[in-house]
Amino acid sequence: MKLEYIVGIVLVLFAAQFLYAHFVIDPYSEFSGADGAAEDVIAEINPDYEPWFGGIGFEPPGGETESLLFALQAAIGSLIIGYTFGYYRGKNKVN
Asked: What one-character DSSP code corresponds to residue 23?
């Protein structure tokens, strides 16, 4: 039960930080990542380059949402890796 409270508090704090940054600090900010910088470099090197894959067709409504999805993906991956390491460490301590 204590774990549920901790996870809930972390989620509320993360959502509050995201909403504060979006609505209070600068609601019209543009977040850009490494993909945009890579596209610019590729366009400088070869302006006629055509990507061989266009993606799945889902375009998030804003850069903030894209950043949120990337952070969520990283968090899920970290949880999986951490659980795996913890499981095998605990398994080795028992034996």
From this structure: I
CA-based radius of gyration for the chain: 20
Separation between Cα atoms, residue 11 and residue 54, nearest integer Å: 33
DSSP-based three-state secondary structure for 27: coil
- DSSP summary character for residue 85: H
Give whole-number Cα distances, 74 to 17, 57, 71, in Å.
18, 21, 5
Run of H or E residues at 37: helix 34-45
The verdict on pTM exceeding 0.85 is no
Element counts in the chain: helices (H) and strands (E):
3, 0
* 87 residue type, one letter: Y
Tens digits of residue pLDDT in 69-80: 889 999 999 999
CB 32 within 8 A of CB 63: yes
Residue with tokens 């901790």: 6
Report the alpha-carbon distance of residue 91 to residue 85 in Å, rounded: 10
